[in-house]
Fold this sequence. Notes:
With about 350 residues, the chain is an alpha/beta fold. The chain has one domain: NAD(P)-binding Rossmann-like Domain (Rossmann fold, 3-Layer(aba) Sandwich). The protein is built from eleven helices and eleven strands. It has helices at about 25-35, 50-60, 75-90, 115-140, 160-185, 205, 225-235, 245-260, 260-275, 310-320, 325-345, and strands spanning about 15-20, 40-45, 65-70, 95-100, 105, 145-150, 190-195, 210, 215, 240-245, 275. The strands form three sheets. Strands 3-2-1-4-6-7-10 form a seven-stranded parallel sheet, sandwiched between helices. A two-stranded parallel ribbon has the order 5-8. Strand 2, helix 2 and strand 3 (about 65-70) form a beta-alpha-beta unit. About 50% of the residues are buried.
Amino acid sequence: MTGAGGARRADPTARVAVVAGGTAGLGLAVARGLAADGWRVAVLARDQGRLGSVADELERAAGGPALGVRVDVADGAAVDAAADAVERALGPIDLWVTGPMVGIAGEFLDVASDDFERVTDVTYHGTVNGARAALARMVPRDRGHVVVLGSGVAHHGVPLMAAYSGAKAATRGFGEAVAAELRMRRSRVRLSMLDFPAIDTPQYRWIARAGLPHASRPLPIPFTPEACARAVLAVVRRPRLRTWVAEPTSIMALGGRFWPGGLDRFFARFGRRLQQSPRHDGDMLPDNLWEPTPGDVGTRGVYGREAVRWSPQLWAVTHRRAAGALAAAGIVWAAVRIADRARRSPRR
């Protein structure tokens, strides 16, 4: 456990947030945004080295204590103990942002069973463990907010990502069920789910792969973590159950519901071509499937200025009064970009 928060008395009036996976990628971007808004933030992760530097950064940004807790979110007892540590150091938990993930790219039969289960353990059970630890403390107090970070692949599975697609689909069903149970209780505790498009995070530098010759790359239109974090902060301020963060997510969700056969044919034809490229083979780091990738990797991946910082639908998500027509226009824009990239992708 790191961070000066552990040396101070917990403030029962402070706003306290926990971010699982908060030392890299989207989780780090969300933690930074919360700290800038004055939250006392605790980040959970496996890498002790990054925890210390991130906790120090968040403490400076918030002007108050922050905390880093080393934990593997696949271990439910360890997550519960981490929640106890956070409440002792910072105060009662008001917000829990959960969406940890690891991944392995490859065809299902090429992925070893234990690697497949590891993806499920972290991505699905890690989310469940976080929600359980949070709700066990929030429900008796009748206040709090759990935010589940999901993915567009929850609405339609993506080839070469069977473990991740399945875990995110399970996470979506879990979140809907728990949200209904909270309503049954007439609880004031809220649960929100955000489904994201591909995001330009370090995950694409350290994702494991099985039977694939090249580095895995995101499906078209990777967004910046900072842009997606703005959507999370908007939902923290004004909770709602479901949010499709950007146009590619809407395409997956609407396509999976109304035109699944079309998506089936699209992925059968372009799924491998869109996710395999030698372009970034030299940027790869050791994978983080079983052990954390060392080093201060930050929020971003390898796409730099190519990553999308703004889109009509993302703007609409962060500006709730925006016209629906703007979001619809964004979906058309995204579809055109996806089709263009598929057309220009070299055959393999």
